[in-house]
Amino acid sequence: MKKKLLSLILAAAMVSTMLVGCGSKTTETASSDAPAEEVVEDTAATEDAAADTTEASGDLQVGIVLPTKDEPRWLQDQAQFESLLGSAGFTSQVLFSQGSSATEKTNVETLVSQGIDVLIICAQDGAAAAAAVEAAKDAGVTVIAYDRLITGTDAVDYYVTFDSFAVGVAQGQYLIDNAPEGTGIPLYLYAGAATDNNAFIFFEGAWSVLQPKIADGTFVIANSSEAVALQDKAELTRDEEGKIIGQITTDWDFNVAKSKAEAHLTAVGADAKGDVLVLAPNDGTSRSIADVFATDKDVTSYVITGQDSEIASVQYIIDGKQSMTVFKDTRTLAADSVNMAVSILNGETPATDTTYNNEAKDVAAKQTDIVVVTKDNVKAALVDSGYYDASEFTGLE
Ligand code: BGC
Q: Which of 164, 203, 217, 388 shows its CA 20 to 30 Å from the CA of 18?
């Protein structure tokens, strides 16, 4: 216990240092700056812990569960967690659910059996994850929902998230600001997975700015009869959003996005082609959809959104194949979660700045801003900030 407390105090100091600077240089400095006295104490206490069979059986402090390795977005988060938690001296493990709620539950059980005190979990399916976090909660674990809210349970203690409504607004506003002149411009709508609460928030944000332009005839929805039926409603209920999302969902899957885009372009006439706008929910689906629109000879130009600033999409933006992305700095999100874990393990109440209702309670949340990235600011936002190395890209000016 003494060991835990000391390393946590150290960890808290380190994570704050890392937040001020960024990248691995600061991390190294923080580690090597650890006062010798504390390091000695820590080593001595490690022996105490080894004698403690309960802790020795697992001795994990923090468990992290992420949805899938198959999307670069979550590999970015994994890298940030490993760097932060490792440097801060935590015992921790990151596990992936690979798109399966059953695997997710097993992952949570595995981490709980290894003695974790804090679970940081990005749910595969926000409703299905309730059972997994309830099991963790019953075992005395504090649960932090990461990026995606877990719904319908009071077993979620905290939520660390980007401002997802702002993501949707940024996507919708980008389409408005970069639309061709005139009226009757075809608008293709796509959404994330209906099992992800974020998909609703992103869509709600986008709808909040796009709807007036649809209602006044500037834009014409080309691929969703449900959205057309609701186009005069400024604010949609969750059920109404569900109907639209049910029709235009990509399931966050590149292949679903591709085949839906192909089917949509096959189904429409030439009047729904020409210069078009595409609301794509994230980078992976945006690249798939963009490739389909780029190869249709009747589509003369397209403006398409994204989010996550995945390397492949940043290259698409540089090459003029994707119009924008939303930068969600995973360094901040991971650091906020780790800081929260430190507070919890020190018996303190973590700092939060808002709440999100998850249908069972108002979950105290820490929210992070987002940044719109286009060809114009890609270098400043993503390379000069130290997030990516310039060598990852070609044609960067
Ligand atoms: C995340 C996005 C991500 C998407 C697909 C959402 O919950 O917020 O950043 O692109 O899931 O994984």
A: 164
Put residue 359 in one of left, alpha, beta given phi > 0 → left and psi -120 to 50 → alpha: left
pLDDT digits (tens, 9 = 90+) for 215-240: 999 999 999 999 999 999 999 999 99
Integer angstrom CA distances of residue 19 from 7, 22, 30, 332, 335: 18, 6, 11, 7, 7
Q: Are 111 and 65 in contact (CB under 8 A)?
A: yes
- Containing 201, the helix (H) or strand (E) segment is helix 197-215
Phi and psi torsions of 51, nearest 5°: -75, -20
- Report which of 198, 250, 255 is spatially closest to residue 224, judged by C-alpha positions: 250
Sequence letter at residue 132: A
Q: Ligand 1 atom closest to Cα of 147?
A: 8
In the chain, the largest separation of any two C-alpha atoms, in whole Å, equals 75
3-class state of residue 323 by DSSP: coil
> What is the residue-averaged pLDDT of the chain?
87
CA distances from 369 to 78, 146, 201, 265, 281 (A): 20, 15, 15, 35, 17
Q: Is 122 helix (H, G, I), strand (E, B) or coil?
A: coil
- DSSP one-letter string for 52-64: -HHHHH----EEE
Q: Which residues line ligand 1 (CB under 6 A)?
A: 71, 73, 147-148, 192, 196, 198, 252, 282, 307-308, 328
